[in-house]
Design goal:
mainly alpha; 5 strands; about 5% strand; 5-stranded antiparallel sheet; globular
Length: about 500
Amino acid sequence: MSVVAFMSNRIPVGVIALAVAVALWATGVLTLQQALAGFGDPTVLFIASLFVVSEGLDATGVTTWAGQRVIGAAGKNPRKLLVLVMLLVAVLTALISVNGAVAALLPVVVVVAVRAGLAPSRMLLPLAFAAHAGSMLALTGTPVNIIVSEAAVDAGERAFGFFEFGLAGVPLVIGTLLITMAFGNKLVPERTASLMPRDLSDHARVLRTQYELTTPPAELIDASGGVAEVVIPPRSTLIGLKVFPGMCTPSGDLVILAVQRKGEELEGPDATLAAGDTLLLEGSWAALDEHTADPDVLVVDSPDLLRRTVPLGPRAGWAIGILAGMVVLLATGLVPAAIAGIVAALAMVITRTVSVPQAYRSISWTTVVLVAGMIPLSTAFMQTGAADLIADGLLSVVGDSGPQLALFALCLITVVLGQLISNTATVLIVIPVAVSVAATMGVSVLPFLMGLTVAGAASFLTPIATPANMMVMGPGGYRFTDYWKLGLPLLLLFLAIATFYVPLIWQF
């Protein structure tokens, strides 16, 4: 029933996951503690902490800096640009997850594509697909990696190492790159998007022109602070306030650079604010964040968005150092993965690299709830014997053909379901079956789990397969059927890697 609900796309995935946990308790399949155990699972806490770390890198302009440096090196050469974009998103994904990397680079890639005379659609689908391949480079690439590593321990095997995923990830990235470069011109459509991300990289110049600013000569947006354009809404308590350029706001934290009414400068000794007036405010990023959230003004462009256009902004050094520290802890195994993630997230907040409200907003609660709600389903599969029953049915089909055919069958199920529902949910459903199959056949579960991870990353055929696929749909102007053209050969590559290559590294 849960799979059918996921496939319907009519019910939010978080609601489905919570309903599954409640249903397992209500039917007596699991105790209350077992049904809700997912919300205290270390895997869930680790996943949540990674969103905060990712926010720190993005908010301080680290990802913007990386994008500008790498993409700038390509100039206007389309093939070189595509290669560097795909490599960059793959590396970033390994550190900050698929969705975080695609979201951070999407505006930059669109702007660069337009300036290079390319249709953004030529680059955005490869961007998303390269991110899926990059998710296999390290433990932090996707929640699925974390889940299967924990599942290996639960099954009595060792956990996968931080960079161990890269043994499969490197050939996946190389294969994705080669297929895209060889067939991308034929398989990636050239579309015109009706909705494009805004280019805020030159926003300072636009505002200086809009408000006819002649001083100060320096840029309006830098690492220490910036500007915000706000509109006075009806019923604002600021209506009637006397204003003039150069005055401080009532809070004393911001300076009014300019005031306009219907596009004309508002000046004179009797100039007072009215509904619909626009103001250009200058101040520190912290002050802009605080005061633009006031209901007395409506912000035009969020200061948070503008701050992200500043390469290596405030506390970027802290963000990079914290990320490096987390990677060292994860790679050496000095502390459990969840502790490494939580320490890194706390460090982001303590060093004020990320504010507390930012930290809460950065967490994809849908993902957290989905994983936490579906973990009890995996428990129920094992506890009730359902996994053994399905495993027996699968083994009766493959017969004596060996574990490789069983691995292929499980991976095939995973890639099919992964086009229709969340790959995280898919892997959580299939893991108990894989563990049971490995136990019944008397072989190691590691190749099965790694194979499922590779198959779970092959979410290429539909825009609904992953949030990253959906992110590029609007800016790329893609149609639903555009995804499978490049996605199908990539899916076959991933399936082949999962079935034939993985058992060579992680032997049965």
